[in-house]
Amino acid sequence: MSLRRFLVAPGDLAEETVQLDKTEANHARKVLRLGVGDRVQLLDGRGKRAEAEILQLGREGMTCKVLRIEDAEPLQPRLVLCPGLAKGPAMDLIAVKLTELAVDQIRPFMARRSEPKIKDAGARLDRWQRLAGQALKQCGAPRTPEFFEPVDFADLLESAPENAAKIMLYERHEGMSLARALADTGRAGEVWLIIGPEGGFDDSEVALAQNAGFTLCGLPGTILRAETACLAAASIVRFAL
Amino acid sequence: MSLRRFLVAPGDLAEETVQLDKTEANHARKVLRLGVGDRVQLLDGRGKRAEAEILQLGREGMTCKVLRIEDAEPLQPRLVLCPGLAKGPAMDLIAVKLTELAVDQIRPFMARRSEPKIKDAGARLDRWQRLAGQALKQCGAPRTPEFFEPVDFADLLESAPENAAKIMLYERHEGMSLARALADTGRAGEVWLIIGPEGGFDDSEVALAQNAGFTLCGLPGTILRAETACLAAASIVRFAL
Question: Which of A56, A82, A151, A224 pairs as cysteine with A155 (C-beta 3.0–4.6 A)?
């Protein structure tokens, strides 16, 4: 049986002993029935995984001694997924599933026809990061994605670096398939993938993206919800390139 | 704006007029604000899509006149996905998302280490079929998958036809990747994909599957929950082959 996993802050694994808080300690004692001397796995969400031993465990916290650390290599290419801001449950699903699929950055954006407008961006970011952390504990992936505050579409386009492979999924595009466009990215170190909002893009936004160097492509034969398109695209990059 | 979609029973589209029940009629009137003369789309979940006009709409039901029908070609290859029976929310996600991804059949199974045991198989099948129908109305896909009652693993293996391409995802398998195994299926008309339960398979089950002609393969570099592996595998078959 694999070790029980706990999430620690980035930086915590630099020390020989790591302190976990009350909530984690109670989860360890009462739910997982762990005790002093048991081995656990500590994840920092930034690629470091440590095997550790519980030195002390009580109501107020838990102290673990780090036995050995491994630093997982990031997967290639770096994958930056840019979903049109969707409703709460769809964004939650994106946060969880794209963590499992080892997406490096999630940069939501608002287009003209985006339905939800962001109200409290800070709270949303905290929520996505927390869900990603829970996903990490369940699936054992080495990293959570880095989440960005939703920005306007034009600002998103400007953030994409010159040398990244840039692809935009566009539901009305019958030409190149996503699989083909991804195969064409060749050895780019970083792939940016834009997935439109449920309402789609208007023509001026499509032109703007093309001017910014994005290649349009479609997912022929089926009609996916935006969040499913995110999962499908990430799956293809991670397993079929 | 695309037409509002309604689900009808297979066979209903054989007639010139189609009768929809009270629930659909109330949804049309009160939520969608439709009225006599409006155009709608009728889906039978078996590949037929009709454009229709509302002839009559009241408290008790709705009558539509079929204007034209198209019959969507099934996608190739036929895709039969066999997930280890998972907990309720994971199976619900599978039912919805595999509808969008145009999976043809979903055949859940119980392995030795499967955690949930099925209690009321009929009720679960009804629920999955209902969720798939809702997904169809949202995404406009032409078909819902055909759902099968969960069976024991050995029985599942026996149901796979001789000439199908047979692949089993196995988390401890480091050798061939899923993308490679799928590419090797060549021009098989039907692909069977087994995705293990959260608890994994035991060695005797792995041997049984290999004897039944299944190729083992892994999803290297990441650790997916079972339901995410289902979505990833279906995405690769549908978009990257």
Answer: A151
